[in-house]
Recover the amino acids of this structure.
């Protein structure tokens, strides 16, 4: 398999971490949407990352669809999202919050770095940053207060996605989180920072 996309993308990174955690063997093509759009469109017509090229040549697009395939492949005993019931709904809620943080923080990052200063719209940027903070604070408040994991007493996709979202916000919008207290999320990130799957994919702006 080949994973398309850079680790700066939190969407790509959550897939890379999940592949490692679940024990898949794969290659990387660290392509950027900013500089490699034409090549990326060979794998995803939208020019977005991540994409995962399977051994069959089939290309899966969108991180959630890719992760669903990985969970289906390893089976319910090893999947990172429970197969059914209240536990599944709880993890999906946490993952949805993390995805929201990724979407809003990426949009804020693009607004700050890709748009000329004279054309930026401060109210829009402020709203994106407020939404990023609100999502992180919600994740922090809903995390289990006992032990390092967000829920269920074990690593799930909620943990992977939350750390990917937090690390991206720290990297891309460092001033935004400077004075924000997120003790449970920080505890989780500290617990996982030296794990190979997380350490090897640490984003750099």
């Amino acid at each position: 398999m080949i994973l398309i996309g850079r680790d700066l993308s939190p969407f790509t990174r959550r897939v890379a971490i999940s592949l490692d955690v679940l024990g898949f063997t794969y290659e990387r093509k660290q392509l950027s949407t900013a500089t490699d759009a034409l090549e990326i469109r060979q794998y995803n017509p939208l020019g977005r990352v991540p994409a995962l090229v399977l051994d069959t040549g089939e290309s899966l697009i969108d991180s959630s669809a890719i992760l669903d395939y990985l969970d289906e492949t390893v089976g319910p005993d090893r999947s990172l999202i429970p197969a059914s019931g209240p536990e599944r709904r709880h993890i999906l809620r946490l993952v949805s919050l993390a995805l929201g943080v990724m979407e809003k923080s990426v949009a804020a990052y693009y607004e700050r770095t890709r748009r000329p200063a004279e054309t930026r719209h401060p109210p829009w940027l402020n709203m994106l940053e407020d939404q990023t903070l609100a999502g992180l604070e919600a994740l922090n408040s809903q995390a289990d207060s006992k032990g390092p994991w967000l829920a269920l007493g074990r690593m799930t996709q909620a943990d992977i996605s939350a750390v990917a979202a937090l690390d991206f916000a720290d990297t891309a919008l460092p001033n935004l989180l400077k004075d924000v207290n997120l003790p449970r999320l920080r505890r989780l990130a500290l617990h996982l920072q030296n794990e190979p799957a997380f350490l090897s994919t640490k984003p750099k702006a």
Observations:
- The domain at 2-74 is CATH 3.40.30.10 (Glutaredoxin).
